[in-house]
């Protein structure tokens, strides 16, 4: 797994356990999923992390995503992600993955 050091400029939100964004264990740190990105606190800024090689299952929820669910969609490789509460969900084997 690789973590790129791409700085996310202009990020004013402070991520933490109660910030409302999903937290993902990634290598030796925690990333927060936010606006289609994985952010990691680093010194006085946030870095973008690449989670493409990590399978992260979304917290279970009753809502079923689909063409008429009301959430915006984003083409992502061979599937569609649904924008949901500041992050993206992708249907996968009976659950949703975080993207």
Q: Any idea how many domains? A: 2
Sequence of strands across the biggest β-sheet: 1-5-4-3-2
Number of helices: 0
Helical residue percent band:
under 10%
Mean residue pLDDT: 78
Estimate the global geometry from the Cα principal axes.
Answer: globular
How far is it from the N-terminal to the C-terminal residue, by CA? 16 Å
Number of strands: 9
Q: How does the helix and strand content classify structurally?
A: mainly beta
Radius of gyration equals 14 Å
Give a quick set of tags describing it.
single chain, 99 residues, mainly beta, 2 domains, 5-stranded antiparallel β-sheet, 4-stranded antiparallel β-sheet, globular
Quick structural overview:
This protein has 99 residues and is mostly beta strands.
């Amino acid at each position: 797994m690789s973590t790129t050091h791409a700085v996310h400029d202009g990020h004013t939100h402070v991520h933490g356990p109660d910030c409302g964004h999903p937290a993902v264990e990634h290598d030796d740190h925690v990333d927060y999923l936010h606006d289609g990105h994985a952010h990691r606190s680093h010194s006085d800024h946030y870095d973008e992390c690449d989670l493409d090689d990590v399978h992260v299952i979304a917290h279970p929820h009753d809502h079923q995503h689909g063409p008429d669910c009301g959430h915006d969609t984003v083409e992502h490789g061979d599937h569609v992600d649904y924008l949901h509460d500041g992050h993206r969900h992708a249907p996968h084997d009976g659950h949703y993955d975080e993207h």
